[in-house]
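Session log. Operator J.P. requested a structure for one protein chain; no other inputs attached. Running the standard single-chain path with C-alpha cell output.
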Amino acid sequence: MSDKIPEGNRSARERLAQQREREKGREKRRRTLIVSSAVVGVLALAAVVGLIAANVGKDSSGDSASGPAITPSGATGEDSLTLPVGASDAPSTLTIWEDFRCPVCAQFENAFRDTITELVEAGQLKVDYHLATIIDGNLGGKGSLRAANAAACAQDVGKFAPYHDVLFRNQPPEPDDAFAKNSRLIELAGEVEGLDTPGFRSCVEGGEHDSWVQKSDTAFREGGFQGTPTALLNGESIFPKKGDEQISVENLKKWVLEANKGKKPGTATPSAPAS
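Structure written below.
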C-alpha cells in the first residue's frame, strides 16, 4: 500500500489548515481590538482628570473647570444636576443624558424632538436633561464642556430648551471642535430670542458653570451608563429599544400613553428663572 496522500486530499487538508489559521488570526485581532478599546477608554478618562488637575488654581479663562460648582438656576434632582423641561407633575419622566458633540445624540434629538415637544406641551411628559462631556475625553478638545456650560447659562434665564435645540441643529462634525469657541456659542444664542445678553455672554466666556458640568459628567461616568444618548422612560431604558421593541416616533408615543393610562396630565409650570 502506498504511503503517499492523494493530491486532492492533501490540497483539501492544506486549505482547511489555512482556514483555521486565518480564523485564529481574526480572533486574535478581535481580542486585541477589544483590549485596545478598553485601554483607550481608560487613557481618555485619565487625560480628562489630568486636564482638570492641570487647570486648578489658574485664572478663569473659560477653559478650565476649577473652582466650586455653580448650579444653574432651576436645576433639580440629586446634587442639582438635572435640567428639567415641562410640567413637574407630568405623569411620566423621560431622563436623557447627552453630549453636545455626540453625533448620535443629535440624530436622536432631530428624530424625536417634535414628538417629545408634543408630549411635553400636552402635559404627558417631562424631560430631565443631564449633560456629559465624553467626546472631549475621547477625541480631545473642549467643545462638549464649552457647549454644556453655555446651555447651563441659558438655563439661568429660562432658555435652556430652545438653546439646547439650536446647538443640536447646528452640531459640527464630531472631529470638528467648533463648539470650543465661545464666539460660536454666542453667535448661535442669537437664534434664541432674548438670550444673547451681556449676562449670558459673561457666563459663557467666564465658564461660570464649568465645574458643575464636570460634576455632571462624573455622575454620568459613575452611573453605569453605556454611552450617549441614554434615554430612560420612568427609569427604563428605551434607546435603542425598550424590551423587544425598537424605538420609533410611534412607539415612543405608545409607551408614554401606556404608562400614563388613567393618570391626569401635568399642569404645573416650571419655577421662574433668575433675573
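Operator note: Residues 31-64, 271-275 have pLDDT under 50 and may be disordered.
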